[in-house]
Design goal:
mainly alpha; 7 helices; 2 strands
Length: about 120
């Protein structure tokens, strides 16, 4: 299932018992198989993907169209659904958001920063 977004664009985090914790992990089965590894590396570790996926994540429609291969050019709706339903909202939407996500190291880097911060509070 992936992330559910509220109208503000932030993920809906379930109350206890509402959803399985696995439902809040990013999913990749909606996008073309040959793109899943690059998408996973970006989301989970903040590693920049190729030109097409970078354009998709920056919300740069024109560049995405120009850079798309034959498979991706007919799967743009799947990409839009993937952005909205399957990954964290703070991972895509503009060049600034894209650069910040890479700089922070994706989900792994953010989790490590939170753990370090919590450790410093003790």
């Amino acid at each position: 299932m992936g992330f559910r977004h509220t109208y503000e664009g932030f993920p809906h985090y379930p109350y206890e018992g509402e959803e399985d914790e696995d439902d809040m992990k990013p999913t990749y089965d909606r996008i073309p198989e040959h793109m899943q590894d690059g998408a996973r590396l970006y989301i989970e570790q903040g590693i920049p993907p190729g030109s097409f996926l970078s354009a998709v994540l920056r919300n740069d429609f024109h560049t995405a169209i120009v850079q798309a291969d034959r498979i991706n050019s007919v799967r743009l709706r799947d990409w839009a659904d993937w952005l909205y339903w399957d990954i964290p909202r703070m991972a895509w939407g503009s060049l600034e958001i894209f650069n910040t996500w890479v700089e922070k190291g994706g989900m792994k880097g953010m989790a490590e920063a939170v753990a370090e911060e919590e450790g410093n509070e003790r």
